[in-house]
Amino acid sequence: MLKLLIATFALLQASATIASSCPEAFNTEVRKLHSKDSVNLCELFDSGKAMLMVNTASHCGFTKQFGDLEALHKKYADKGLVVVGVPSNDFKQEEKSEEGTARVCYQNYGVTFVMTEHADVKGRDAHPAFAYLASKSKAPSWNFNKYLITNDGTVKHFGSTTKPLDSKLEKAVVKSLKI
Predict the structure, then answer these.
(1) Which end of the chain is more exposed for a tag (fewer CB within 10 A), N or C?
(2) In angstroms, rounded to a whole number, what is the distance separating the alpha carbons of residues 179 and 168?
(3) What share of the chain is helix, strand, coil (3-state, %, to 5)?
């Protein structure tokens, strides 16, 4: 019985730590792209020292950035960077089906970082995480806006034209990871 109480207390303490270090808007389950599996954004955020959230689209002039996002993910994942892509049709350039989006991401670009289900990223219907990001910086004005959230909750916005491996973005990642 004592072991059960200790284990329960440890679990509650871990949950409180996650909740305290993660913005409340991220304390939500999101379904992974073209999957029945879900992930909690706070758990992802807490597992790394920094998170890069990107609103993506399958048929945009910036779609090739998936390749550089994957390279950034591979370069820094073991150092604590979590990359999350959120496909959105807010700018009318996303596949209609999640199957089509998955094909673009996984087959065409070899994406291994977390991709979520389709979601709105701006306006009244924006996903709570993107509403939070907009309140801390600015709402996406096009596809492939990048939001770096550091472990202290600071949000840094990088627009569509900033490539994932651009020195400005990469230096911000390195600084936030303290490497």
Answers:
(1) N
(2) 15
(3) 40, 20, 40
Q: Phi-psi bin for 34: left (phi > 0), alpha (psi -120 to 50), beta?
A: left
CB 57 within 8 A of CB 105: no
Which residue among 22, 42, 60, 105 is the active-site one?
A: 60
Active site residue 60: yes
Tokens linked to 117 = 């289900």
Give the 3-state secondary structure of 90-147.
CCCCCCCCHHHHHHHHHHHCCCCCEEECCCCCCCCCCCHHHHHHHHHCCCCCCCCCEE
Q: Is the dihedral of CA 109, 26, 152, 43 positive or negative?
A: negative
Alpha-carbon distances of 59 from 3, 19, 71, 141, 150, rounded to whole Å: 54, 36, 20, 16, 29
Closest CA to 122 of 133, 135, 131, 113: 131
Give the phi and the psi of residue 26 in degrees, each rounded to 5. Answer: -90, -5
